[in-house]
Structure formats: structure tokens, C-alpha cells
Give the backbone structure.
Amino acid sequence: MIDIVGTFFVILGIPFFLSGTIGLLRLPDIYTRLHALTKADNVGLGFIILGLAIQATSWFEVAKLFLIWFLVLLASATSCHLVADAALRHNIKPWTKERA
Amino acid sequence: MISGSRFYMSYHVAALIWRFGIFSSLWLIFCGGKLDSLLVGLPVISAATWLHLCLAEDKAPRIRPLMLVRFMPFFGLRSLASAVDVMMRVCHPRLLINPGLIEYPLTIDHESGRVLLANCITLLPGTISARLTQDVIIVHTLDKGLPVLAIIGDLEARISKLYAPRSANMGGLS
Amino acid sequence: MTTLYVGLALVLLFSVIVGLLRIMWGPTAADRMMAAQLFGTCGVAILLLLSKGLGQLIVEDVALVFALLSALATVAFVRRTWTKEGPRQTKRLDHD
């Protein structure tokens, strides 16, 4: 039973990763692509980690899994901010509906 | 004066115990809870605690752990909403986006809170933080139709509640 | 169970490979840099799935190291490679 619930959450995470990649390909500029990549992938990883944590054999493993998630959240939020900031400094104009 | 210095001591003892506790838990997580690993671990944990105390700024505001726990479900649900939001926009045949840049004037007055706010903005629906300065944050939004300023205002209020009021924890240190 | 988890890891690997198209298309250096972020998150997920699928708990530690290091690539890129001052600084160092 626990395995089924866990596997369900793991599978639930996959579409988020796929939509992140679709966004990376379809969206028109660097800023919008950052949205897709950062948000979708983090939640996808969150579901996978939740699913694996449900099936974990010890509390230490659960803690390690959530530590990994926290680190990835921190890393991608920071990366996203740094890339957006650098893009602004390079005067890359955001794509807008009006100009398209 | 005497009570002041005693407060100063207890503040530092509390800081020491907190850091030691956090580094010990990290060590045990890495080692999968094997207690005999503490033979190597204890010196490392002590060194990390000492180093962290040396590097810590006295003026850094303190986080209230209980408020942090209350913040987590809010954060989790909102970031789930943001991922679903992005997914819908990206998979829609006409790509439902109307992006733009928005400036938000900050009221949080400490670095730690500003950075936390910027990171939360990035993970919440429709917005990423693109630049952070002393008093303003530039946000890129996927949809200019969203009430971005109101959303960030609400988030900022929640984040400033995570920190203990400055006058309360700085009393003995000045 | 093993097949399922390894299969899911392969799906994610496929997603990363499709994401590599963005590196080819660019058009800016930052677009290419985003692939590092993609690798960071997807890589951690793939490693965790493989760890579960193959029953090798040690692979989780590799994922942990991935998570720790993934921000560094972007920081290095933004601070060193993609700054306007960057190339000039190196030139000045060369002349010294």
C-alpha cells in the first residue's frame, strides 16, 4: 500500500519536469524560460522526493531526501535570480505581447 | 548592568546550543544515524559551530522557528500552484503569457529578509525576482494582469513576521 | 519496481536531452547557461530514481553533492564569464 502511494507521487512528479522542458523550448525569451524551468522542475522534484520519502526505510533517509530538496530549491532560486539579474545588466529586453 | 551582561551570556549560550544542535543533526543525516561516526563527527561539528559563531554577524535578526513552521505549508501550496500555473500556460496552444517587468518598493530593512523575499518571489506563481537593491526589487512577471504588487505585499508581510522584533533580541547587546 | 524506476529515470533523461535543443538554439549565453540549472534539478531527480530503482542507497549521496554544487556553476558563470568587466580584467592581468 505504502509502495503504491509512494510510486504514485513519484509518477506525479514527471509531468512537471516535462512541462519545464516544453516551456524551455516554447517560451519566447530568457526571463519567461526561467519561470518554466525554476518553478516546474522544483515542484516535480518535490513530488519525486515525497514519493521516495514515503517508501524510505529510516527517518535519516527521509531527512536526507528533504535536505536534498531544500538545497536544490535554494540553488535554483539563486541561479534563477542571478541569471535574470545578469540578463538585465546586459540590456536584454524582456519579450512583451505588444512588441511581438 | 549586571543583568545586562547576564542576558548577553545567555544569548550567546543559546546561539551556541542552536548551532551545535543543527550541525549535529546534519552530521547524523549524512551518516545515516550511525552513532559511532561521532568519533570523527564531534571535532568536526565543534569546529563548524566555532567557525559559524566567528562568522555570524551580531546584528543579524533572529528567525522565529514556530513562525517558520507555520510558513512552510503556505509556501508549499503556493509553489505547487505556481508549477501548475506555469504548466497550463506553457501547454496551452496559444501560450497564455503577457510578460513584463514590475518594480516593488521594499520595506524590509535587513539583508536576510530581503534575500528570503527574493527567493520566495522566484518560487511563487507568476513572478521571478530579477534585481534586488537596498530599497527596491525588480520582478519579472509572466502575466501583467496579475495583482503582482498586492501578492508581493502579502508575502513581504508574512516574511517580516518570521523575524523576531529587533528591539527584543538586541536589548542586551548594545 | 526496478524497471519502473529506471524507466522513469530514462524519461527524465530524455527530457534533459530535449532541453539540450535550447543550448543549440541559444540565442544568448544565458539561455545556454540555463541548461546547467536543468542538469542540476533533473540530474538530482535522475540520481534519486536510479538509487531507488537499483537499490544503491549510496547514489543518494551523489545526489546530495549534485544539489550542493549545482548553484556554483551559475555563480561562476555570472561572476566570471558573463560580466562586461570580465574580459577586460583578464586582459589587464595578462599585461601584468
About this structure: The CA atoms of residues 115 and 132 of chain B lie 8 Å apart. Confidence is low (pLDDT under 50) at residues 168-174 of chain B. Residues 65-166 of chain B form one domain. The two ends of chain B are 12 Å apart (CA to CA).
